Please model this.
Amino acid sequence: MSNKPFNSFDLAQSQFDRMADRLGLDDPARELLRWPMRETQFLIPIRTDDGPVKIFRGFRVLHNDARGPGKGGIRFHPQETIDTIRALAMWMTWKCALMDIPLGGSHGGVVCDPHNLSLREQEQLCRGWVRQLSRDLGPRIDVPAPEIMTNAQHMLWMLDEFEAIRGERTPGFITGKPVGMGGSLGRLEAAGFGLVFVLREALKELGIPPEETTASVQGFGNVGQYAVRLFQQMGGKVVCVACWDQKEGTSYSYKKESGVDFNSLAGITDRFGGIDKKKAAALGYDVLPGSAWLEQDVDILIPAAIENQITIDNVKKIPPKVKIVAEGANGPMTSEAETVMAGRNIFLIPDILANAGGVTCSYFEQVQSSMNYYWEKDEVLGKLDVKMTAAFHSVLELAKEKGLSMRDAAFYIAIARVAQACRDRGWI
Amino acid sequence: MDKSFSKSLAQFDRQFFTGREKFTLIGRGGLGGKAHGLAAMEDILEQQLGGRFAPDIQVVIPTLTVITTDFFDFFMKDNRLYDIALSEARDDLIAQAFQKAELPAPLVGDLRALISQVHTPLAVRSSSMLEDAMFEPFASVYATKMIPNNQWDADTRFRKLAEAVKYVYASTFFKDARNYMRATKHTTADEKMAVIIQEVVGARYGDRFYPHISGVARSHNFYPLGHATPGQGVVDLALGLGKSIVDDGVGWTFSPAYPQANPPYISIHDLLEQSQTSFWAINMGPPGEYNPIQETEYMLKFNLTDAERDGTLRFIASTYRPEDDKIVFGIAEHGPRIIDFAPLLKFELIPLNSMLRTLLKICEDRLERMVEIEFAMTLDERRGTPARFGFLQVRPMVVSDAKVDVSLAELVGEHVLVASESVLGNGILDDIQDIVYVKPEKFSPNVTQTIAGQLEGLNQRLTASHVPYLLIGFGRWGSTDPLGGIPVNFGQICGAKAIVESTLPEMNFMLSQGTHFFHNITSFRVLYFSVPHWEKYTIDWPWLGRQTAVAETELVRHIKLPTPLKIKVDGTTSRGVIYHA
Model:
């Protein structure tokens, strides 16, 4: 058992330190890149529907913008901490650099549980968050996007508030907007599809036909749902899906040995990715504890929920059959767990690569919004696939060349690019 | 069968021209008939033909990748297209709906990668599970779209490729295809479409891109010329894209046994009029009207002056010398050019004829039946050699082997409605009671398009009731030039089990010579009679006029007889006769 509570930022910094050693970065570079360049913490007062005012805590962290404006999500989550936001901002920097898109890394959030907020209250929260940050946000400064428990409607409220403050239309201020209101076709699918694009390349690398594989997925939100859909379209079979049950305050795994039916399961899922337990049971799914997804005898595990899900405590429960872990979530695995997995020769597709489809498509959206000209979905997904595939192969090639793990190779490429940008700008 | 090929062929590795494999697949479904035919020939061409005609001719299957049929299934289901596809909606509405739909996510990355590195024209061709398949002749029903693919930015090239793929998918459900399905007793549920994306063999001259030679070679000739026999086959050659031969019915026809013999034109004047005077090319210049649902969006017709300016007539043309009313080989002299391929066929600058004979034999042996192949070539612009021969397609010909004898004596008599010594097909029909014919007294080349529309309506009614019929008309059936015949496609007359093509004294029509259109007719064992007015045997128009019409327009009559006709065609002598009671 590990005694120290998990801290995402510790993990992110240790990943950076390891690669900084490998890259031989000098002290100024290390100091600059292992900390955010700017942090904002603030309070948002909201008058609730019942009358009283409640105070919410908000954050925005810009890790690094040497390669371009900051880019990162806004998370509404009751367990949000500044360290989680710092880690996510840092990972965004690496992710954008790895995908070779001209953006930096940032992240933000509000400590809240939107399940317990009315739509009006959520709108007030969104507008309040933007009011606090309007000077530090913008298409050429820092560009927010949806993340856990935020969606297109939230983005549109934020855009509206920002435009009201600035007195102009700036659709490039935020991404993840609804299609028709400055959003990009393919944005919803991008993170999940992107994961499957690199998973497909990993299967090719291992010489495994997709139609002969099975998978278990944790999380049935945006990433999980679209990953399941495309993986099944490629011929693979998903036998287990786990998700959070808001009513019961715990998670469950839903299993069907013959393969989950995406459409029927999506039809009983709420907008936060929660599957209706009773209806799932009625559809013939075995309802298992939330941790059971990890123990399924499958070829592929896709953790696509939140951080810290595969730890030293449960990594040994991963069955021997598992050949690939594709990290749909950010930081779903601890370093200790990863060391154990590496010993078992499991092919890992690290988070900054596997879930980079979302930010890549966000970039496409920002480009389209700036032009005010929008592409067909074929075009968006075609570009996404090419970007994802190219990034996968650059990581794989480096991993082979330098004898690195896939994660280290991905960090190596990303950190080298960001450090070079900082040097080119004369910062260090 | 398809699956076995798809397993042995390599998956597309995102390297189109530079990849190790030149014949690759995207997907894990079926290849469709056209791609299947090419896959069947790939190794054999290499083994049996590879170095045999080198260095004069390099024989290749142009680089291609096949989008297998599983993507068609995804595309149809994910976009919920079956409702409109199986409706009776107009072709353009179906095509529009398909254009709005999204290609499957696992496909678009490969297309994007392909288009990012390829800047030369591409042919996006149908390869349906029924089309051209080994036992299911289904030729030329579905669309092929040529795209110039020379736009500066990859986004535009990608969009054009995606539009072309969707257009080919949509053509599965166009009216002609649906009619064809009915005629062949298939249902649309049988059909799945693969798509071939293939390099176009050719060269660029300013705003034009075209092969120096395109051709169709058949191992059986339904119209043997001169001393040639049906089994010696026939070849059509044309300048530019093969559309001239396949759709326009224009080209230089010769028997591989007698390559130096001219086609049987009546006079030099006739030859000048009937030989190729224009050619099709891909438009590499400023695009015309944007119309992703038009097959010829990027194709243009040019005349021989353009080709001469390009320098592409040197090895394929002769010149008419009016002073002495003679044809002189080559283009050294001024005068009207004639595309007769004389340097290649008469002087054997390259062993093209010999190679075609070998190729037909190889294909026949491989498919174990008579075959038809399509090809395109480029020649070295200075010396003619080396030439690059692109093998585009092979499909089997279906020929009845039932023994039917028609003697000369049978061609005359009181009950003879039609007789001819130039008949295509083989067999006996004795269940046809319906005749649809174009009224000779009303016919004029100016009304052929109206006639086509009226025939289509009658054909629809008769095929819906499963009533076979005899069709009689004037000029070249399926002509793309309305002045050269009735411009129908086969879907518009697909219920006809016997077809008569005739002329009237005031007409100067050249009847068809086994064009692509007639491949369909013979494949479906439709009996075809050629009855020009100058021949000995004609049509009993007065008898037809005396029969009572069940339907009639200004230009077309439909009569129903109380007793069936008897139709006999002797495929070995090319004689045929139609008796009425």
Notes: Residues 32-49 of chain B form the longest helix (18 residues). Chain B has a mean pLDDT of 86.
